[in-house]
Specification:
The complex is a heterodimer of chains A (403) and B (291). Chain A contains 13 helices and 19 strands. Chain A is of the alpha+beta class. In chain A, strands 8, 9, 10, 11, 12 and 13 form a six-stranded antiparallel sheet that branches. A four-stranded antiparallel sheet of chain A has the order 1-7-2-4. Chain A has a four-stranded parallel sheet with strand order 15-17-18-19, with helices on both faces. In chain A, helix 11 links the parallel strand 17 and strand 18. The longest helix of chain A has 20 residues. Chain B contains nine helices and 14 strands. The longest helix of chain B has 13 residues. In chain B, the strands form two sheets. In chain B, strands 3-4-2-1-5-6-7 form a seven-stranded mixed sheet, sandwiched between helices. Chain B has a seven-stranded mixed sheet with strand order 9-8-11-10-12-13-14, sandwiched between helices. Chain B is 34% helix and 22% strand. In chain B, helix 5 packs across helix 9. Classes of the chains: A alpha+beta (403), B alpha/beta (291). Chains A and B meet through helix 9 and helix 13 of A and helix 4 and helix 5 of B.
Chain lengths: 403, 291
């Protein structure tokens, strides 16, 4: 699960992680009020207005309707409401959102942390994530902050330091010091940096996070270390023990069809293609998408109906897929192991009749237990449904109906 | 010979009396698997499916001589069940449970490292040696005895592959469902290595997915050890978009290296017979075995 920057920062602060202070607002008046509070609390004269959407590249992104950038600076209280107006309700397009962009419903009013001082402020990068090959967390840090870390990894891999942590004993102080020294921090920055790393790791473990990315991490002109941005990704499988975090989910950030499918207990991912599919098992579902592509179509979705494919799940699946106007054909691919194909076939016929006027061709491939009986039920139903048993035949049928 | 499980395996079921455990233990017994008992805390001393129930794995091992355990315990308690089995001296742990928090699995994987045990899964269909033992949730009838080993991250795709292998006139030595989670006990390379060392296995089908680097690691190992047996490979998710989780917790493209295309390229370079369509698995195995 992804959460917004302002939510991530608030949670990190509870774990003692130093952050750029900010207050979230959903209208220009509230934004002005937030800026006033922030001024009273931190003394900041300038205010950073940051669009809150679940996508990166907001600073360079542009609001379609007004031309405003996704992150802007207000150099006085008076400028705040006007600049917020140009963002709120607008559609922000960044390199991560795609051309359609995302509507900005909230902005974070944040203190200016790039104020001048004895040294220039400097940006760093820090993240904690699971190293899947080792099965343990790794802290990654770089002196190249504020830029795309994947580019750094490609061009200057030596500028990324990694520290692996044994999760059974936790992060040790020497490990935090190693990272802090590698960043070149001295004096107060070193002291704060070590504490920052330790707090960040505690938060990572405490929240059951799957990924934290702090980019940029800032050393201010007066040698303080703090998080200017935060990307927090939580482990969905652990949300049952973090009820408070589960409530941070913002459904407006998700595809409405995916939200609806989730409510029906279906594992659905919306894609851009023209052939819908409904499959039991995640691996077979991905493989079915691949077959659609090899047959000359493009998959319109990923949909795993799970082990018990019955009339209800099939009907729910149909309804979701048919709401996508791009869908020109549907391929149902069920390998009946424990679940019998004749029962799935009956479920398909029942769901089909219940929904009524389905105008796109449907190919039902049933293999496994009672596959022949299943095919017979489909063929004798009199519906506009093609049946197949072997995967190759199903692929051919897809090709035929698209031609 | 076969790997991980055979007719001599003495199997216990953790989470024996729950609905999943009950159903699949029944199916396993019907298949002929030597299920010697089960564990459900606080139900020790009773009997279930004609087999004794124990409070702890330790007691089950002492009383039945069990050496294999299959886990159907709910996700919140499954990592604990894995560690309990390892502590009790079980040699092969097969964890079916889907949805175990990553943090719990990090601890469990670390814990079992010091024990003499192999963990398969979690989030897997289990392991089957046709005609000898089915320790999993797969439909047994699809798997006929033969000489092709199967390693797969996915459940139904394993059944699909086995079905094609059988329809091609061949059979399966052992099929290992390694699981679709980000942290699993037996990654692809380790599972392939078991089958490479199994005298009864003459060819291997290796089925992977987007996400992680298990398949490239296995591919490089296969090449370094001299491509001793032909390997047919498939990676599901050639059409999956980056950054989206495709059902399995581990099936997510994180960068340029864990796409299907990148994995298939490395596998080809390492001498693996990569098929683009999952419909071609059976035929390709037949072809490489005839060479």
């Amino acid at each position: 699960m992804n959460i917004h920057e302002y939510q991530g920062k608030e949670i990190l602060r509870k774990y003692g992680v130093a952050i750029q202070r900010g207050i979230v607002a959903d209208n220009p008046e509230a934004a002005l009020q937030a800026a006033k509070e922030l001024h009273a609390e931190t003394g900041t004269q300038w205010f950073v207005i940051k669009s809150q959407i679940h996508a990166g590249g907001r600073g360079k992104g542009v609001i379609k309707e007004t031309g405003s950038k996704g992150v802007v600076l207000a150099k006085s209280l008076a400028e705040v409401p006007e600049k917020v107006k140009a963002i709120l309700g607008g559609t922000l397009v960044t390199h991560q959102t795609g051309p359609d962009g995302k509507v900005v419903n909230k902005v974070l009013i944040a203190e200016d942390v790039y104020y001048p001082g004895e040294a220039d402020p400097k940006e760093y990068y820090m993240s904690i994530l699971l190293d899947r090959s080792k099965g343990i967390p790794v802290i990654m840090a770089s002196t190249e902050g504020g830029v795309n870390i994947e580019e750094v990894a490609e061009t200057h891999p030596e500028k990324i330091v990694k520290e692996w942590i044994d999760p059974t004993i936790g992060l040790q102080a020497f490990q935090a010091r190693k990272v802090a020294f590698a960043m070149g921090w001295e004096g107060n920055a070193f002291k704060e940096g070590v504490k920052f790393i330790q707090s960040l790791y505690n938060a990572y473990i405490g929240l059951d996070a799957s990924m934290f990315e702090i980019n940029p991490l800032l050393k201010t002109s007066d040698n303080k270390i703090l998080a200017v941005d935060s990307k927090v990704n939580l482990d969905d499988n652990a949300l049952y023990r973090h009820k408070d975090l589960a409530e941070l989910r913002d459904l407006t950030e998700e595809d409405p069809l995916e939200v609806e499918a989730g409510k029906a207990g279906l594992n659905y991912v919306k894609l851009d293609g023209n052939v819908g599919c409904m499959v039991n098992g995640a691996g077979l579902a991905m493989a079915t998408m691949d077959i659609i592509k090899l047959s000359g179509g493009e998959p319109a979705n990923f949909l795993d109906v799970g082990g018990g494919a019955n009339a209800e799940t099939v009907e729910a699946g149909f309804r979701i897929i048919l709401k996508d106007p791009n869908v020109k054909a549907i391929l149902i691919n069920i390998f009946g192991g424990i679940v019998r194909c004749d029962r799935v076939a009956n479920g398909v016929v029942e769901a089909y009749k219940k929904i009524g006027n389905i105008s796109v061709p449907i190919i039902v491939r049933l293999q496994g237990t009672n596959a022949e009986e299943g095919a017979k039920i489909i063929e004798q139903s009199g519906l506009k449904v093609y049946s197949a048993i072997v995967l190759k035949d199903a692929a051919m049928k897809v090709k035929e109906v698209l031609a | 010979m076969s790997v991980l499980v055979n007719k001599n395996s003495r199997v216990i079921v953790q989470g024996f009396t729950g609905s999943e455990g009950t159903f699949h233990a029944g199916q396993m017994i019907e298949y002929g698997t030597n299920v010697v008992g089960g564990v459900t805390p606080a139900k020790g001393g009773t009997e279930h499916l004609g087999r004794p129930v124990f409070n702890t794995v330790q007691e089950a091992v002492q009383k039945t001589g069990a050496d294999v355990s299959i886990i159907f315990v709910p996700p919140a308690f499954a990592a604990d069940a894995i560690m309990e089995a390892a502590d009790a001296g079980i040699k092969v742990i097969i964890a079916i449970t889907e949805g175990i928090p990553v943090k719990d699995m990090m601890i469990a994987k670390k814990y079992i490292k010091s024990k003499d045990v192999v963990l398969v899964g979690p989030n897997c269909p289990g392991v089957i040696t046709p005609g000898e033992a089915k320790v999993g949730i797969m439909p047994g009838f699809v798997f006929k005895k033969g000489k092709v080993g199967v390693v797969s991250k996915s459940g139904t795709l394993t059944y699909e592959a086995a079905d094609q292998i059988v329809k091609a006139g061949l059979g399966v030595s052992t099929a290992i469902g390694i699981g679709g989670d980000p942290i699993i006990g037996t990654p692809t390379k380790e599972a392939v290595e078991l089958l490479m060392n199994d005298p009864e296995t003459e060819a291997i089908v290796m089925i992977g997915e987007i996400g992680g680097n298990y398949e490239p690691v296995a591919a490089r190992w296969i090449k370094e050890t001299g491509n001793k047996k032909p390997v047919v490979g498939f990676i599901a998710g050639q059409t999956a978009p980056p950054g989206r989780r495709m059902g399995h917790a581990g099936a997510i493209i994180g960068g340029a290296d864990d796409t299907a295309a990148a994995k298939m390229k490395i596998m080809r370079e390492c001498g693996i017979h990569v098929v683009e369509s999952p419909a071609d698995i059976g035929e390709t195995v037949l072809k490489v075995l005839k060479k």
